[in-house]
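Let us practice reading a record.
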Amino acid sequence: MKIYSQGDQAIVVSIEKEVSKDLTEDLLALKNYLVEKNYPFITEIVPTESDMMICYDARDMIKHHHIISPFLYMKALMQSVQLEIKHEDKSTTAVEIPVIYGGTFGPDLDTLLAHYKMDMDKFIKLHTKPTYFVSMMGYSPGFPYLTGMTKRLFVNHTGGKKSFIPAGSVIIEGKKTGITTTDTYGDWLVIGYTPVRLFNPDQTEFTKLKLGDNVTFNPTTKEALDLGGFKPCQL
């Protein structure tokens, strides 16, 4: 584990392990511990795939808590809490996401099939077999980066051109798959579409998925779903 400063009011705890479900749970356990302790000078906690940034109010620490060096205090605090972290038993139930693969809904899939040298049925079996987990949230509100994809589907390239990508697009990027939560414009490889709304600002729980959640994909057809106002990808 490494602990280092990120500017004058943030500290980063980096766990030097391969991205995994256990690593994500380590970071969530540390975050939950800090939230429960409710330190008044911690202003934000931002976990990523392999580390976590803890922002703090250095002025408040010096002025109201008589802490001479906020960074050294935070570093010592992070080192001291590691042994206190206890993982909670969590349900292994996965959120099932229905996906329409290929065609208008996954315009990059045919090119990927040629790259992989496999047919559609084989691809769908490989993509839907794993139980993924949300290893990071980012890019847009509620956007899940899903780890667990079979190595056979890893890619080292993006789409040839940037295009409109609607919310609900299932994409592949490198070693991960993901689901767009808002309409966007980019060069992600779009393999399918789901009408499941992962981000809804009108609800109290405005994201359907959270860090550490398990996710599975279920192949389906457009006739079986309410497409939710689907807008196809376009240049």
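A brief commentary: The chain is about 25% helix and 25% strand.
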